[in-house]
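User: Fold this; tokens only.

Assistant: Input:
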Amino acid sequence: MGKASRLRAQRRAARTDSTATLERVVRDPIKRLHDAVMAIGDAYGTDADCASAAAVLREAARLMGYELRARPVSVVIRDKKTGDIAAMGPKARARFSPEDLAKSEDHRPDGEDNGHLILTSEDPQMLYDPNLRQTGAYGIQAPSVIMNIDSTQPSSGEWNANLPEQYVLYILDEGNRVLIDAMKRAAPNLAEAAQALVGNLRDGMSVDELASQSATWRARRK
């Protein structure tokens, strides 16, 4: 390689390094993203609206420099203290016998079982579920979930979460696109809420302070 070629290669490498450094600098701290998950969980509470919660979180994450992917799942959740079990989504309900299902109370919106929507991140490898709190509507007081994962494409097609008070099984159901479509429809109307959330977090507002604005959040998502 001649001198001119070496210089060009060095300049290209320098530009690449500068771009990579800039990307690292502009990405918000991961704690801020995790605070957003909790704030969104507070805002949606026990409402079964995981599509809207996912839309807000995905846009907020994008503004902070993180790329999240929405994932349709079925969910089985068991409360450690009471033994109560809830199932969301056809793949979850398929784990139970017809007799067990006949004994259970049906909490599906309008009798439709569209499952649940979570988000995953490749960098870092994480699973986010702000709206698992919806199970509180039928007695299981689950939190929003922020969880390290080994893969965003597990060979088993499942992720297990061992929470302080619940066990949660997430079962991938990529063919079930109902909630993905609902998230896409909700996204344009929720972009402003995501921008406000990120701005408030960057201004130093705490998750507890954001929780006091939950009425505003509910108004914005409708």
